[in-house]
Amino acid sequence: MTAPxxxxxxxxxLREVLLxxxxxxxxxxxxxxxxxxxxxxxxxxxRAVDTDxxxxxxTERVVPLEDVLPxxxxxxxxxxxxxxxxxxxxxxxxxLVVASRFNDGAEGYWVTGQLRIADAETPTSLAVAIGWVAxxxxxxxxxxxxEKHADGSDVELTGRLITDEGVxxxxxxxxxxLGRMSPAALLSRWHxxxxxxxxxxxxxxxxxxxxxxAISSPAPDEGTSVNWLNIFYAAEWAVFAGFAFYLWYRLGKxxxxxxVEEFEEAGRG
Length: 269
Fold this sequence. Notes:
This protein is α/β, with parallel strands linked by helices. It folds into 2 domains: 14-48 and 226-268; 58-205, no CATH class. It is 34% helix and 20% strand. Strand 3 (96-103) and strand 4 form a beta hairpin. This is SURF1-like protein.
């Protein structure tokens, strides 16, 4: 009598493969990675919503310059366009002209000056855009008029704080030409700068001097308290966390499919 044949073993199921120690270990690693991604997404969400937005019209209240920022620091977004009050004296010989300045659509020039801040603990200066003129001749006349009053007498100014526009190389045809309002570029041409501290932003004066025209400097737009770019980044981290689990599942399924193929090939053999 012939003994009954032993039933052929069945291939493992996907669930059996994924419950093996190797794949459970990889699942634990995915949990750690997904946790890190979730933390990064939460951090981005925390930065996306400004829980303490500035009050409407806050930039229109005139405050002392020293209450906004110290010298040498960058102007943050909340303080961009803030109206400030400052007093000091003009440094003679440092009234410089910046070209390519538009005022209500008309191209012209800004006349600028170095205002040495009064009562500062160390020598400190602020670059001031004093006023706008239509042509170089008017700019030269304004510089002459301002030089006559740069006698060390105290000057009180109000205006808006604006971020440094950055330094640009001058045109080859006129190496002395300034085309951007940059305190860093002006500093390289100012006098008496030994040990000088300089404010990084500049001031657009509310009241023009020296026969110039007031610079058009409207109030900044009041932005939303929600930063949608940060929300987008947070969504990206959530996608990355989900992808970590998908990758674990996909790799496990590929391993299971290979085992099934090997089992079928062994059976045919």
